[in-house]
């Protein structure tokens, strides 16, 4: 099995903790209404310091590996950019 990194843009729906947040307002071809984004100290951020000062309602672009789970899909973020 080979994993591929992908990218998407959405809106921060909620902040779960210092490193994880939920994103909605996803592109129309996305099968789920929302995803959980997980970041860590190695997550690259552009135009900001890690951790990003994200707020509910911020538009973000994410890149990383999307995993299907029993709940919301999880994106293991490689990069986060506040739009």
Structure description:
This protein has 83 residues and is mostly beta strands. The protein has strands spanning 6-15, 20-24, 35-38, 44-46, 59-67, 74-82. The chain has a five-stranded mixed beta barrel with strand order 1-2-3-6-5. β5 and β6 form a beta hairpin. The chain is globular, with a radius of gyration of 12 Å. The termini are far apart. The model has no long low-confidence stretch (mean pLDDT 83).
Please give the count of helices. 0
Subunit arrangement of the protein:
single chain
Q: How many strands, which pairing sense, and closed or not: the largest β-sheet? A: 5 strands, mixed, barrel
Instruction: Please provide the count of β strands.
Output: 6
Mean pLDDT, to the nearest integer, reads 83
Share of residues in strands: over 45%
Which residues sit in consecutive blocks of at least 5 with pLDDT less than 50?
none
Level of helix content? under 10%
Helix and strand sequence: EEEEEE
- The rounded Rg comes to 12 Å
Give the neighbour order of strands across the main sheet.
Answer: 1-2-3-6-5
What spatial form do the alpha-carbon principal axes imply? globular
Structural class: mainly beta
């Amino acid at each position: 099995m080979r994993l591929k990194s992908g990218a998407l843009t959405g809106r921060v729906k909620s902040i779960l903790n210092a490193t994880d947040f939920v994103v909605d307002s996803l592109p129309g071809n996305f099968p789920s209404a929302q995803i959980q984004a997980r970041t860590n100290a190695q997550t690259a951020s552009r135009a900001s310091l890690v951790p990003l000062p994200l707020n509910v309602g911020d538009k973000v672009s994410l890149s990383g590996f999307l995993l299907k789970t029993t709940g919301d899909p999880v994106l293991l973020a490689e990069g986060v950019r506040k739009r």
